[in-house]
Amino acid sequence: MRKEPPVPAPEAVFKALGNPARLTLVRTLQGGEHCVCDLVEAVGLGWSTTSRHLEILREAGVVGSEKRGQQVFYRLTLACVPGFLACLDGAGAVRNFRPTSCGRD
Amino acid sequence: MRKEPPVPAPEAVFKALGNPARLTLVRTLQGGEHCVCDLVEAVGLGWSTTSRHLEILREAGVVGSEKRGQQVFYRLTLACVPGFLACLDGAGAVRNFRPTSCGRD
DNA sequence: TTCATATTTCGCCTTATGACGAAATACTGC
DNA sequence: GCAGTATTTCGTCATAAGGCGAAATATGAA
């Protein structure tokens, strides 16, 4: 069964990404889809907690899941996220040249 | 006195934007700089609460403030935010054509 | 059917958030 | 210096969020 995420509501997206564990999950998923087992290891939290975090990300429309066999695979579904993350990650580095800017001003 | 925001830490940025009042503040500031008095009205909360929200946004590196006369003006300083917001806002609209995408995939 | 593995749901507890009003602080004009 | 306006800081309180382990659910293998 495939669970498509709902239409992303901006506030929910930000709230979902505003947590270290969930941000780690998203960064991990930038490398491609992963089963929950991988993700549990990536965040270093319990299964139940990780599962809850994934649910929040899915409800926010950031990720989608698909069950294959006895495993559930998650992947990023909100394509603007990686670019924005890259901008934020880069923001510190560029800091001394000009106020943080990424493609617009 | 001008208060430049610190280097934005991704998690703090998301956390800062993951609140309806603060998202309203940011959307308001997309239209240009505003004094706190305007912003208080825009969010419809008390002065102390609004001030706290602005502080959080500033600490996250999303906005910067400058005092001119007896008023303090806030403005957006994180340039990648408007584009990302536009993507999120558009995500719903495009939903039926293809999975949410904004400039990459 | 029965068992093992993978994942989610539930209930509980602790800590973080968000709102308010009162008091403190900063700047202007008198 | 004193009063008035603009904003921030502080203390308090109610609610939300995040973590855990135990129990429930689903799938594949025997």
Describe this structure as you would to a colleague.
The structure is a homodimer of 105-residue chains. With 105 residues, chain A is of the alpha+beta class. Helices cover 52% and strands 15% of the residues of chain A. Chain A has helices spanning 10-17, 20-30, 36-43, 47-59, 80-94, and strands at 2-3, 34-35, 63-68, 71-76. A four-stranded antiparallel sheet of chain A has the order 1-3-4-2. In chain A, helix 1 (10-17) runs antiparallel to helix 4 (47-59). The longest helix of chain A has 15 residues, at 80-94. The termini of chain A are far apart. In chain A, 34% of the residues are buried. The A-B interface holds A 7-11, 13-20, 23, 61, 64, 77-80, 82-85, 87-89, 91-92, 95, 99-105 and B 7-8, 10-11, 13-20, 23, 61, 64, 77-80, 82-85, 87-89, 91-92, 95, 99-105. Chain A binds a DNA duplex (30 and 30 nucleotides) through residues 19, 21, 35-37, 40, 45-55, 67, 69-72.
